UniProtKB/TrEMBL annotation:
InterPro entries: P-loop_NTPase (IPR027417). The lineage of its organism: Bacteria, Pseudomonadati, Pseudomonadota, Alphaproteobacteria, Rhodobacterales. This is Sulfotransferase family protein. It comes from Paragemmobacter amnigenus.
Length: 291
């Protein structure tokens, strides 16, 4: 077993909060070479894996993919099926389109991952963080409790936080350091590879470099703010003639934090600063591809 696989096995994996945290913890062992492929292309259309980063408009993209592949042709929330498949309790899924809120490092551990073209969508990092915090406030500690103590604690901190004062924001930031949740810079964390420990460890600008190198290997990279462009690119990639449609799903109902809160934006910068660097580089990458 390689060092990376040992590190991955050392991290217990749990299903994440829907639309809040990715499913980077699970009870099953990581995939190694020669093991069963949990997802296998059907061969009717181009095989695509959509990496759904929480709070980046993934539900809207999923609806578009269902128009391309048909509702039955898209395996949604694929991370929820993994444990049963890898434990031998369920058969591998034969599908041309996999949608999962699953860190790339885990996807790449699976046999057959290379059979799928990768697609993902990023979002303005500050707007994404605000949406994530509001979602946690919406479901509350009780709603988060079923996903584990770290998730509940994270929701508790959001609920009790004062996002209108400097002292309240400082306290919120300091309290987050006590929670093993990988809450900050989630877009980098979802794309960084190497070992599973990268999902909860302190990340650095070097991790942004690793995440960007992986992003360069994606067939399609889009942005939540420009979903029509992403849809058109997916249509070209899959060879389908389906008109793009502007639909945005998954907006948080709660408003404990606003994108217009400049004080919070400045104080909470460490929570999304590296995501900003990745987002800027992704913008340049997509612009270069369009030339």
């Amino acid at each position: 077993m390689t060092t990376d696989m040992k590190a991955a096995e050392a991290v217990s994996i749990r299903t994440g909060i829907e639309g809040v945290l990715p499913a980077w913890r699970s009870t099953s062992r990581p995939q190694g070479r020669g093991r069963i492929a949990p997802f296998q292309p059907e061969g009717k259309r181009l095989a695509v894996f959509y990496l759904h980063i929480p709070r980046c408009g993934g539900a809207s993209v999923t609806r578009f993919l269902e128009r391309v592949y048909g509702p039955a042709g898209v395996t949604c929330e694929a991370q929820a099926r993994l444990d049963a498949i890898l434990d031998g309790q369920a058969k591998p899924v034969v599908t041309d389109c996999v949608v999962a809120s699953l860190p790339l490092v885990r996807w790449l551990h699976f046999a057959g991952a290379g059979d799928y073209q990768r697609v993902t969508m990023l979002r303005n990092p500050w707007a994404r963080l605000v949406s994530q915090i509001n979602r946690l406030a919406e479901i509350g500690p009780e709603g988060a409790a079923v996903y584990g103590p770290s998730a509940r604690t994270l929701a508790e901190e959001v609920v009790r936080a004062d996002f209108t004062s400097r002292s309240g924001l400082d306290r919120f930031s300091n309290r987050l350091r006590l929670i093993d949740s990988g809450f900050d810079n989630l877009q980098v964390r979802m794309l960084v590879t190497g070992t599973m420990s990268a999902l909860v460890k302190h990340i650095t600008p070097k991790d942004v470099d690793v995440a960007f190198r992986e992003l360069e290997r994606f067939a399609v990279v889009g942005f939540c703010e420009e979903q029509l462009d992403l849809q058109r690119t997916i249509a070209r990639l899959t060879g389908t003639k389906i008109a793009a449609s502007a639909v945005f799903e998954g907006a948080s109902k709660s408003s404990v934090l606003s994108v217009r809160n400049t004080l919070a934006r400045d104080v909470l910068l460490p929570l999304y600063e590296l995501d900003q660097e990745l987002y800027a580089r992704a913008r340049a990458l997509v612009a270069a591809r369009q030339v």
